[in-house]
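Possible regression after last week's pipeline update?

I re-ran a chain I had predicted before the update to compare outputs. Posting the input and the new output here so someone can diff against the archived version. Not blocking, just want to make sure nothing changed silently.
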Amino acid sequence: VQLQASGGGLVQAGGSVRLSCEVSGFTLDDRSVGWFRQAPGKEREGVSCISDLDGRPYYRESVKGRFAISKDVAKYTVYLHMNDLTPEDTAVYYCAANLVAYHSSGYYCQHPTGMDYWGKGTLVTVSS
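New output (post-update):
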C-alpha cells in the first residue's frame, strides 16, 4: 500500500492549487480517504475527508467553500482542489487512507489516528 501526494508549490494569496494523491496496492472503492495538513509549529489537522460509509465530504470550517475533495476510482487518485488560498493555508499536506469505512467522513478527519496509511507530504506555500 502506497500513497503519493503531489501538486504542492508556491502560490500567491488568492490563487489555486490542485493536490493529487495517487494510491497503489488498493482500490478506492469502499474506503476512507482524506487530506491533512501540518503547519510549522502546529499539530496535524484534518482538512477534508470522505468516507464511503456516508459519502458526504467533510471540510474543516476554515476551508469550507474554498476546498473540494474528490476521487477518481479509475485513476486510483484522490484530489484536493484548493481555491482562494491564504497564507494561513501554508502547510505540508498529507493524504491518508483507511481500507475500511466504518466511520463518517468527519470522524476520520477529526481522528487522524483512524487512518492506517499515509503518504509523504507535499508542501504548499502561500505568499501574501
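Follow-up from reviewer: compared with the archived run. The chain has a mean pLDDT of 96. Marking as no regression found.
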